[in-house]
Amino acid sequence: MLSAGQLRQTVAAIAAEQSADGAIPWFRGGQLDAWDMVEAAMALDVGGEHDRALAAYEWLARRQRPDGSWASEYRDGWVVAPAAESNHAGYLAVGVWHSWLCTADDGLADRLWPAVRRALDLVTAMQLPTGAVGWALRPDGTADDTALLTGNASLYQSLRCGIALAALVDDPQPDWDLAVTDLGAALRTRPDAFADRSRWSMDWYYPVLAGALPGPAADERLGAGWDTFVVPGLGVRCVADRPWVTGAETCELALALAAVGRTAAAVEQLAAAQHLRSEDGSYWTGLVYADDARWPVERTTWTAAAVVLAADAIAGTSPAATLFADPGALDRLDPASGRPPTVAADRSDVGKARG
Fold first, then answer.
1. pLDDT, tens only, 286-325
2. Which residues lie below 8 Å from residue 4, measured CB to CB, with a gap of 6+?
3. What CA–CA distance (Å, rounded) separates 215 from 246?
């Protein structure tokens, strides 16, 4: 379906959009947000472009605001939408943990830890009495009382990665443990804690992708929405009532399927996304299949990144593949070292194991 050479070409297409200062916009001259930039950086790490990934994370560290947040949108280095969104803040932890899994670079974790800590402290401060996290900060600095299910599922993964990083750098954060416990309970048992965005496919599969719904509950959820969102041979609808499939949602469903061991179904979805592939290895964002028209007419770095991450999770190629393919691995860290059992504590051994 996808050769190693084709995936390298896709990684190169993402790298080609990166600015000299490390920023990765959706496309050259387009908008940038912290969440999508982290996803693109993770794909660079999977492709072995570790210096480029680090440059992206260092860009975010430099741009982090005193409260731990980032603006919701930048363009050519300028803030164009200043709102602080919780899932944008939290996702740096996922990227840094993923990068450490890829590189075993303790210096990277130490260098980026302060930014991760500030960001997740903000996230926990935005947690509501329901256990859910408000989607954004109000102008007065308090959390909006609207919580979004997809964003909160992402924050569940972010907090778990942050807790893993805290153990790695020996800086425990017990408040995060309490926050992720309450958030997990909200995701599993309190649907009324979240705004109704059930039209959107991300709300369907993201609790599974992030590991908040394991086992039979995950299978039940995926089965319940399958016919609503999956278009055979084309991928996943972005919204239930539109004839529009999108590459990122299709590949994220593949990640969710990989997380519950449904590898064949994951491969099928990754294959379905390939009609969006361009000759240079980049990917169109989506297709309005009723009109056979690409829309929007753009090839986004985060769509390409979703392809790379899905392929990695399915094939198990990179040392970070288990982050999505086996969310439970975060519960099996060595309590003494804070490291996964498959990663040697001695970095020289890691280097030998990886050739």
1. 999 999 999 999 999 999 999 999 999 999 999 999 999 9
2. none
3. 27
